[in-house]
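As noted in the main text, all predictions were made from sequence alone. Below is one such record, for Succinylglutamate desuccinylase.
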Amino acid sequence: MTRLPAFRTGQARREQGHCSPAEGLDIPFCVIEGAAPGPCLVVTAGVHGSEYCSIEAALRLMATDPAGLSGTLVVLPIVNVGGFRARSIYVMPEDGQNLNRMFPGKPDGTASQRLADWLMTRVFPGADAYLDLHGGDLDEALTPFSIFPGASAESRVLAEVFGLPIGVAAAPGGNSISGAALAGVPAVLAEVGGNGIWTEAGVDQLVEGVRRVMRHLGMVPGPVAPAPGGFEVVAFLVPKADVSGLWYPARALSDAVRAGDVLGEIRDVFGAVLQTVTADKPGPVLYQLSSLWVNAGEALLGLGVPTGA
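Prediction:
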């Protein structure tokens, strides 16, 4: 199959299988339409193929019963199938590129650019809302948070409804939610998990977040409770490595960092300090590189900087 089934037919149904967005690419899908009309929610996972918590959550969402659904739920549980099979970190093995930096893509570009273009032109136009499930890759530890296009008020509401305690208001970029924003679709990228490990608690947190959004959209019955633990909107501060070497973090996940605090050191194999990394602004540690080795130019961690700090 070269394209997905229609998202709206007016008939309760479940269609699943594989489609080929571009030559050499083959990804699984599940389209679940309820008997009652309603919005279309698109959920993707596995944009980064080793973020297993997100993939398992999406696989479980495919069991949604059409009988209790208004509208359509479209699930693409493993977008980067090649990366999933190769246990690749961040990139698609077909071209060595990070799909989540390729939007809006190119129809005649590399594999990741063609896949991004397919999502932009064949998937997002049929969506009323979009959720992209993630969770720290094999070399990344994180505390749960979401990211949304900062200029989109609708996306901010969806991020709060999803229920993770921190939402990062992001500037436009080449990621999936920026692509959705270009298509006029409110979008949230949810991060739960890390280090290639998936847990029942993490999977449940992502599944429940999607269910909360579905209740908010009127796709399934029931009220939406306030986000557990509240909701804080922050900006990202992402220090990067100036040099390659051994990374020794000085902070743990969720640590409250003050401006000027040491975040960690990069050393050579003999222990000499090559770079001392300090915080320019305050905020909690949302994610952190857990690999001992870091290459120059790579992100070391992400701080959630309070707005106005």
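The chain has two domains: 13-217, 234-306. The chain is about 20% helix and 30% strand. These features were considered when defining construct boundaries for the mutagenesis experiments described in Section 2.9.
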